[in-house]
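Quick one: structure tokens for this chain, please?
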Amino acid sequence: MAFIPHTYEDGKTIITAEIMKSIEDELVAIRKDMGLASYPIGSVHVSTKNINPENTIGGKWVAWGSGRIPVGVDTSQAEFNAAEKTGGSKYMQKHTHSTPNHTHTLSIVSKSLTGTIYNIASQSKGSSYGASGICKVRSSKEKHGYGAGTANGSSDGFTITATHNHSVSQTASGGGTTGSAGDGNAQNLPPYITCYMFKRIA
């Protein structure tokens, strides 16, 4: 309603009910205009009450950012270089870094390094001597002692060969033996507080 000028009578102001209503309407309109001036189109209104600003300051508003956390624009980062870009995930996606806590158990298979030798120092033709396991009688003319006439060669003694390998087996609890990424349900939420957000579109 347009503002109705005051009516004067004998130098006195006469305010009728209609004038009062006009003044109230004007005050409401001014308040809404001031409110809208504070929120140009594209602005976001944040409140803990679910009241669309259309009902209080006018304009046209829509719910905005539901279930999302606002982040300031940063032109140096591709994810944040423009307004109203969306991204991220409530849950961490499956990858090796999201594996739930688990343990690995390593077991090393032992390797026997035992052997025996006998009668090497006094060996002579026909005597019983030898070696087993990691010990071995020398491979060249080994059946010969020290005394002249009893030996037909010059090499005697034994060798020890201990070259070996260990095998390692792995078992795991919570993640499997292949280092799987788990069920992918690890939460990825920062501390938060909820509110209602409305964006002015007209």
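The first helix runs from residue 17 to 38.
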